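Write out the bound-state structure for heme C.
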Amino acid sequence: MIKKILIGLLVALIVIQFIRPAKNNSGDVTKDITNLYPMSDSVKLVFDKACADCHTNNTKYPFYASIQPIGYWLADHVKDGKRHFNINEFAGYRIGKQNKKLEEVIEQIKEGEMPLPSYTLIHTEAKLTEAEKALISNWCQNIIDTIKATYPADSLKLKRPTKPEGAAK
Ligand code: HEC
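---
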C-alpha cells in the first residue's frame, strides 16, 4: 500500500514538471511609474533589487523556478504581488489609487512586510537598510504631498463597490 502511494506521488511529481506556469516576462513598461514620477538612480536601484521581481512585468527567475511545485508557488506570489501593486502599470492607475498605493508602500516597508521575508531569505541583497527604507519612503511621501496639494481630497477617495443588502460576506 505504502509503496503504491509513494510510486503514485513520484509519478505525479514527474508529470507536473511538464505543466509550467506562464512566465512574467512581457517587459511592458508603457505605463511605468516613471512616466509620471521620475526616479533617481538610487531609488530605482532599491525598487529593482527588492521589489521588481513581484511588482513589475519582468521577473528574473532563479533556476529553481523551473522545478515544480516551486515554480507554481513563485508564480502565485508574482501574480498576487502584481495585482496589488505594479510599478510598470502605475501610470494607468486612477489618482486615488496612486495615492493609496504610495501610502501602502511606505506602510509595508515600515512594518517590514515587504519585501516578503520568504524572498529576502534567499535574495539577501533585497533586505532593506534603514537608509534604503528612508530613501523609498521619502520618495513616496514627496509624491503623496504633491498629489494632495494638486487634487481635491474628494477626488482621492477610493470608490469601493458597495455590497448589496444582506449579501454574504
Ligand atoms: C517575493 C515577492 C514580493 C516581493 C519581492 C515584494 N512584494 Fe510586495 N507583495 C507581494 C505579494 C504576494 C503581495 C500581496 C499579498 C500581501 O499583501 O501580502 C504584495 C503586496 C504589496 C503591496 C500592497 C499591499 C496592500 O495592502 O494591498 C505593496 C504596496 C507592496 N507589496 C510593496 C512592495 C515593495 C515596496 C517591495 C519592495 C521593497 C515589495 N512589495 C516586494 C509580493 C512581493
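---
The chain has a mean pLDDT of 94.
The pocket of heme C is lined by residues 50-51, 53-55, 77, 80-81, 84-85, 101, 104-105, 108-109, 114-116, 119 (CB under 6 Å).
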